[in-house]
Write a structure and sequence with these properties.
4-stranded antiparallel β-sheet, 11 strands, globular, single chain
Length: 126
């Protein structure tokens, strides 16, 4: 069973930047999807960004142009660079992974991911 641990969250002013990290305890799949999701109290978890083993990325419209997702296979680390942060970005951020089916892609949908981290809080306020 793979374990994921997020870090890097905290408080930041609007317009600031934060980089989140997620380290996996092991690499289980040769083909995979890695994603960042966020959730606020009273709302469903929503997709933020994803990256595949073959370096395909996807972003939610709300963060496109501001956030960058990346990965480092050697260290089994997933990153989310968050720039020009807005108050509406405040949420608990989670990383997740699942297997990518051959000849298929990944979906930025929480239901499509099996393994999850514990989350890290990001608060954007002035």
């Amino acid at each position: 069973q793979v374990q994921l641990v997020e870090s890097g969250g905290g408080s930041v002013q609007p317009g600031g930047s934060v980089r989140l990290s997620c380290v996996a305890s092991a690499s289980t799949y040769s083909r995979y999807c890695l994603g960042w999701f966020r959730q606020v109290p009273g709302k469903e978890r929503e997709g933020v960004a994803l990256v595949t083993d073959n370096d395909i990325t996807a972003y939610a419209d709300s963060v496109k142009g501001r956030f960058i997702i990346s990965r480092d296979g050697a260290s089994r680390t997933l990153y989310l660079q968050m720039n020009d942060l807005k108050p509406e970005d405040s949420a608990e951020y989670y990383c997740a992974q699942n297997e990518r089916i051959k000849f298929d892609g990944c979906r930025l949908d929480p239901a499509a991911f099996r393994s999850w981290g514990q989350g890290t809080q990001v608060t954007v306020s002035s």
